[in-house]
Automatic annotation (TrEMBL):
Protein name (database record): NAD-dependent epimerase/dehydratase family protein
Organism: Flavisphingopyxis soli
Gene3D superfamilies linked to this entry: NAD(P)-binding Rossmann-like Domain (3.40.50.720)
Every NAD-dependent epimerase/dehydratase domain range: 2-212
Amino acid sequence: MIVVTGSAGLIGRGIVALLRRRGMAVREFDIRTDPRHDTRDRAALGEALKGATGVIHLAAISRVVWAQSNPVLAHEVNVEALRGLLEIVGGMKSKPWVVFASSREVYGEQDRLPVHEDAAFRPMNHYAHGKLAGETLVNAAREAGIRTATCRFSNVFGSIKDHSDRVAVAFARSAALGGRLVIEGGENCFDFTIVDDVVRGLGLVVDAIDVGESLPPLHFVSGRSTSLFQLADLARQFARRPLSISEAPSRSFDVSRFCGDPERARALLGWQAEIDLEPGFSALVDGFIDCGHDASSAHWLDCLKGSADAEIAVL
């Protein structure tokens, strides 16, 4: 049985569905579907892990700006909850494997593109520092005998139910429904990856770690750099209603460019991105049109319910 934390998120929904299609037993754990499923609650997490053969840990405060605005909560969820999970796993006789979802944010600003998994870490914001701390915890767990894999994701998108402030989602929604599109740092370039490709890669990681040993850190990236100006051009191309575009300065805590090297995932798992940005973005625009309204998920603060007991489980 595989436990998926953050099972209600973008990647979580996809990997849960994939594993179940394979006939695998999956236990979901996400505070958005059950308020008792808080990864900071070690008793609840320990109960969920009973009988587990593996854990896919996706739960996190997953937006850079959210971590900047609430660094204490981000540290509790992104670092201390992971620490607790690894301690529980370390105390289990069965020693289930752990797959940890990290981020391209750990690299910060890099001099050379594409970025390889062995590049230096230069975290620029609270979210990046938390993910890097998480990787350190996972590495220590591996040294202690737990099978682990760290997957670094980059600008994953592909659902209208994703967070409304993600750049690809915001641009696609504006293209479908009209309105004002704001570009924060138009020259900034990122490696956009379709969620279906990422989920397929996670499935390959599960296959490998379930029967083998730990895996080195892996990128699930397209290897293609796209500027926000280019993404805005796509929004213009696929726009169904009048669209106004304006520019704003970049935020001081944002990385300005990233393109990842996907070669290690190809060599070890036979994985490569199969869905190009253009059809993926077009499908997202069509999704908003078919829905007929803004279907993107509620802001994370809605989950707080007047307290600090919240986490968002989307990467």
